[in-house]
Design brief:
The chain has 616 residues and is of the alpha+beta class. It is 49% helix and 11% strand.
Length: 616
């Protein structure tokens, strides 16, 4: 949704950033500003300042800065719309939603009210479970046996669901209320027309969303009953494929420690918090999904998965690998920790100490290594058959990686193990060849995706003159040395080739030339350009007084990597602005409209961050 700018300005004028930040950071007055320990990185000396006059925060240690909305986005891992709504709610303001039809607004309000009602029901049950724990010796003995302190029990809201089929009837007088079944607290047997509590004689672990609202429960049986662990079912507020146990409690520790530790169970999370590792979370009885990984990367760029070292743990790690691959960008780190089969994190720390476990975490297996191990599993690399099997396994894994340095390095490592060339691997996997370290003379091949397209055909981005100016800067760099084309990613190639004519046609032509001939000097390109509709543009861009020596390609030093990445980011931002204009024209009733706008906003924020942080 598009929020009116005047509403955002009014909201920020009402908000007190000292109050907003002070709810999460202990602040002390220091002159005209307030000081505290930065919640976004670990530090012992305060470098985090909040200015009430400017209504702005800034950390001189890590560089994080912004207004009240920006703080909620960074600290709570919210997107822009979520942060605005959260802040508006704190001041009793309603975010304008005039673009939606009355029916859509009514449905959204009804859904919010329904979700809030369900979380209220779950919160009430959680309070009852906490109360029952105080008079449950067996449950108390279990937690004490696991070394859980009263402080940790309070922090995680631990409780106990007593024996008995209808204990919650004393908490909810209307035991037939449909909300009890909808929230997952009560099971309804339609055939026998009976209702009974889902959780009985179990220690209880409330599951909270990132806002701290109770959305479900996990329960561990105390006796010999089955299943040993039981989670709430899927409900309108709880989806185990998207939620992570302990994420709300671990948020600050994740920022401070700089990484998140993903474990296999909620007791692991509680025990690790007790033993000095409060930055742990757990999946909820399901394999780690891409949704889990995406959510984790909203809080940190460093994820360590912890698994048992047995066969089941390796299978779980393999599924986590699949979930992590699409998000394994070059600026992120994903590792896999395999404990000895006889240990879980709790027992390992008690047996060997915190430092030993911390050392174990630091020595965890990088994603690249685990990917190669997974591809080579059950493959005899001493034989051609085994290497072929490994290549077949590696292809689907490698393709999931986002384009970047990691993906390119892994291509080389897989090729080396397979005793093949990188280009041969790409051909076997059916991937369009983009590598230009060696000259390619494959006339008539389909490797260059634009070579069969008439110049000026195909979909083109509608971009504005400033973006075209940046594109011409990139074109100049590439014309001076077409080897530069190899340094760009597939996404960059598509972005440039889909620009309007004539600059987009020029890049399409360069793409074709590069795949047929590799890097070429300007002297060769100038001859080949004769008769092309974009020849005038190319000749105008190239500075004849600063031309490459005829017959060889040299590196251009006056337009470096920093300028190149910034220019590409500006072009992409302009393309996204055009895409945003298109989406805004969609009917307000279109269900994809809001999600598309959210996605565009996220991508724009990432590009803005990239353009600001391109190293000099």
């Amino acid at each position: 949704m598009a929020i009116p700018q005047n509403f955002i300005q009014d909201l920020l004028s009402r908000a007190d950033i000292v109050e907003i930040v002070g709810r999460h950071v202990q602040l002390k007055k220091g002159g005209a500003n307030y000081l505290g320990l930065c919640p976004f990185h670990g530090e012992k000396t305060p470098s985090f300042t909040v200015s009430p006059a400017k209504q702005f925060y800034h950390c001189f240690g890590c560089g994080k800065h912004g207004n009240a909305i920006g703080f909620l986005m960074d600290y709570g891992a919210m997107n822009f719309v979520e942060a605005v709504k959260d802040l508006a709610g704190q001041y009793g303001l309603q975010v304008p939603e005039d673009e939606r039809s009355p029916e859509d607004r009514a449905r959204a309000a009804q859904q919010r009210e329904r979700q809030q009602t369900l979380t209220d029901v779950l919160e009430k049950a959680g309070a009852a479970y906490r109360k029952h724990l105080r008079s449950a010796p067996r449950a108390i003995a279990y937690f004490k046996g696991r070394g859980v302190s009263g402080e940790i029990a309070r922090q995680f809201g631990l409780g106990y669901a007593p024996e008995g089929w209808r204990t919650l009837a004393s908490v909810f007088p209307n035991y037939d209320d449909p909300l009890l079944a909808e929230s997952g607290l009560v099971i309804v047997n339609e055939e026998e027309d009976k209702r009974y509590d889902r959780f009985r004689d179990r220690v209880m672990f409330p599951i909270r969303n990132v806002k701290g609202e109770c959305i479900g429960f996990g329960g561990r049986v105390l006796g010999d009953g089955t299943p040993k662990y039981l989670n709430s079912p899927e409900t309108p507020v709880f989806s185990k494929g998207r939620e992570l146990y302990g994420l709300f409690e671990a948020r600050s520790a994740i920022h401070e420690q700089g990484f998140v530790l993903v474990t296999e169970g909620y007791m692991d999370v509680v025990a690790l918090a007790q033993l000095g590792f409060p930055n742990a979370v757990a999946t909820l009885g399901t394999a780690c999904t891409t949704d889990h990984v995406q959510k984790l990367f909203r809080f940190t760029d460093h994820v360590v998965f912890s698994f048992d070292g047995d066969a089941a743990g390796r299978r779980a790690a393999r599924k986590a690998l699949d979930g992590a691959l699409p998000y394994a960008q070059d600026t992120r780190t994903v590792k896999f920790l395999f404990l000895p089969p006889e240990h879980d994190p709790d027992s390992y720390i008690r047996a060997h100490g915190q430092e030993a476990f911390a050392r174990f975490v630091r020595q965890a297996v990088p994603l690249s290594t685990f990917l190669l191990e997974a591809a080579a599993e059950d493959c005899d690399l001493a034989t051609a058959e085994g290497r072929s099997h490994m290549v077949s396994n590696a292809g689907p894994l490698w393709k999931q990686l986002p384009d970047g340095a990691l993906k390119r390095q892994l291509l080389g490592e897989i090729a080396e193990r397979a005793q093949l060339g990188p280009q041969e691997l790409l051909e076997l996997w059916g991937v369009a060849e983009r590598r230009g370290g060696e000259r390619q003379r494959r006339r008539g091949s389909a490797d260059a995706p634009y070579r069969k397209r008439a110049y000026g055909a195909g979909q083109r981005h509608a971009v504005k003159p400033p973006a075209i100016a940046f594109a011409e800067q990139v074109a100049l760099m590439v014309l001076r040395n077409t080897g530069t084309w190899h340094a760009l990613t597939d996404a960059d190639h598509h972005l440039l080739c889909e620009l309007p004519a004539p600059v987009g046609d020029l890049f399409s032509w360069i793409d074709t030339r590069f795949h047929e001939h590799g890097g070429e000097p300007w002297a060769v390109l100038q001859l080949a350009l004769e008769g092309q509709p974009f020849a005038e543009l190319a000749n105008r861009l190239v500075d004849l007084d600063n031309m490459q020596p005829i017959g060889r390609a040299v590196e251009v030093v006056d337009f470096g990597e920093r300028d190149l990445r910034r220019a590409l980011a500006e072009i992409q931002l302009d393309a996204l602005n055009g895409e945003e204009e298109r989406v805004l024209k969609l009917p307000a009733s279109d269900p994809s409209r809001t999600e598309q706008l959210y996605d565009i906003t996220r991508r724009k924020q990432a590009l803005l961050k990239l353009s600001r942080n391109v190293p000099a």
